[in-house]
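Slack export, channel: ligand-projects

TW: morning all. Re-posting the request from yesterday since it got buried. We need the structure predicted with the small molecule present, not the apo form. The ligand is pyridoxal-5'-phosphate; the SMILES is in the block with the sequence. No rush, but it would help planning for next week.
GE: picking it up
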Amino acid sequence: MQMLSDAVAENVGRGSMIRAMFEAGAALKKQYGEEAVCDFSLGNPDLPPPGIVARTLREAADKAGEAFAFGYMPNAGLPDVREALARHLSTEQGLALSGEDVLLTCGAAGGLNVLFRAVLNPGDEVLAPAPCFVEYGFYAANHGALFRTVPTRPDTFALDLEAVDAAVNARTRVLIINSPNNPTGQVYGREELAALCALLREKSERFGRPVYLASDEPYRFLVYDGAEVPPLLPLYPYAVLASSFSKSLSLPGERIGYLALSPLAEHRKRLMDGLALCNRILGFVNAPILGQRIAAAALGASVDADVYRQRRDTMAAALKDAGYEFLMPRGAFYFFPKAPGGDDVAFVERLRAHLVLAVPGSGFAGPGYFRLAYCVDEKVIERAAPALKKAFKE
Ligand SMILES: Cc1ncc(COP(=O)(O)O)c(C=O)c1O
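GE: finished. pasting the full token output, ligand included:
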């Protein structure tokens, strides 16, 4: 019996490398005990949400008996939440957004799907610098588009503008960037972004339709050593921010995020109408109401980023001591070291034999590397250090 579509049947069979590691980890924990396994496979933030989250929920609970406390709302979100978010983003981006420029979504993931649904024709292309978040390819395919990766600069994972220039063609509709980056920890600088925007502006003019720059920024709050995440909306009229509160407030299960448009885009009302329609017809209808209330109350708040910095330093010391080659992450909570021997899948197997769980870089279009997520207690990192060393030496 053919229960599934061909594409879904194929992907269900294949699974993801992250998911496979998650399942292998669960089995190892059962066999050897939780404490024995050092699990760096998942980017699931472990820090408690800031206090404002619980306070907002308590207030919402007091009002939960009122009529329409959980009623339908405009597809783009609660008007007062849109206004509050627009004020926050105006400060962050350094130019004035109105509530009409933002749309509340079911996480950054939901936002990207809404954007893709709104702008992609079948056969259009979505490009992303590799390595990248594995889900982008699925999101493009959801809307009949082709997904292609563009190389970044060797070792630093900085943008390779020549490669982007060569890759963008008349079918390219979206370039998606992610800074701070999962999995590399790289943060793109102001100059390279300005050059990228100039390039896309020229391509948009040449091809007679916008090449959108989707900036996936759920890790914007998490940068180290004074790194900055330059605002993109002033640089390019067809820049669209996709972000969320999943990491900044440790709320990934609540599914709350947003899309924001550049006030420089003349026809953005038309785009926003399309996005609101797509939020509806993809079945999201609107972003969760409690998440919207929490997000509005907590704008500017975040989990304690210093805890992540401390763990980064501990992990860096362990990797360095063992002899790994890696780029010191400038943001987000991942390391992406070179796999000794070059075969990332084999090396991750070797780590697993030492009860250390990581994800092969091949799962992020970055073969030859492996990803360690350090949203785990520092003690786990300390415990993993001898095993990381042994695996390197073998
Ligand atoms: C780069 C990147 N983009 C998007 C997402 C999805 O985030 P959200 O929970 O906001 O949908 C993640 C989640 O890990 C991510 O790492």
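GE: first-pass observations. The pocket of pyridoxal-5'-phosphate is lined by residues 43, 107-109, 133, 178, 182, 216, 218, 244, 246, 252, 257 (CB under 6 Å). The two ends are 47 Å apart (CA to CA).
TW: perfect, thank you
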